[in-house]
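Q: Sequence in, structure out?
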Amino acid sequence: MALVPSGKTELQNLIPTVWSSQMYDELRQSLMLGSFFDRDYEGEIRSMGDTVKVNQINAATGELLEFGVDNTLDINSEALAITQKEVKADRLATASYLVEDLAQLQSMEFQADARESLVFAVQKQIETYIESLIVPDLTHQVAPTVASDLNVGDVANMRRLLSKAKVPVAGRTLFLDVDYHSDIIQKSTFASSDFVPAGSPTATGEFSSPIYGFSVREHNGLAADVGYAAHPSAMAHVMQKELTIKLSDMHPAGKRGWLLTAEIFFGAALFDNLRVVKITG
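A: Exactly. Output:
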């Protein structure tokens, strides 16, 4: 009886599995808040639970004297008033992969992409935690004039609130979700080249110049119809100097495979709830 090879059954066990050297990039949300807020104390943290205390000297009242009328001989001094704020490194952001295929692990492209993915996961945990701390004063929690439609007057109102709170102008930034950002790039006052000297958002989809003193950034990780107008000094953010990435053999634990882990301990605290405005609705 003649053998009739199918070309499939007899050869299927001889066909090797091939791992492509090219990795397909995942679409990931933007991470902005973690790098925006004050990180002057980064690297001062040595271990979990360390606390950084920051002193703030309160402004003196002073006095205005008139010669010949007021006592100009004596000096009326004031006690030095200091407000102490602190931020504690009490959070651990971590992510890990259990890799069972040695061929994958030995691929430089795979290792690089896996490490990048873990770093992103750690940064995303930090970003989520920081946003959870942004709870402005009730007077700085506002809604747009028209629901779900951020307008020129709404941005001007956020500017007014920060200015009344004496927040420095330099460094003010407006973080907007995709919907709010899409709203304002359509507003003629912001989008028209007649008003924007460095290029119209109608062409680029971005603001190359500040609007009302705000640097505008689209944050695709925010919930729908949410925006923050903030100054970097509103929050302090501390962390280890470097993120730790470690590859561990799981055989001592009775398992086959390797554990690739990224982690860092950090902390954050909102120092001033008047240095940020939240708009939603």
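The first helix runs from residue 33 to 36.
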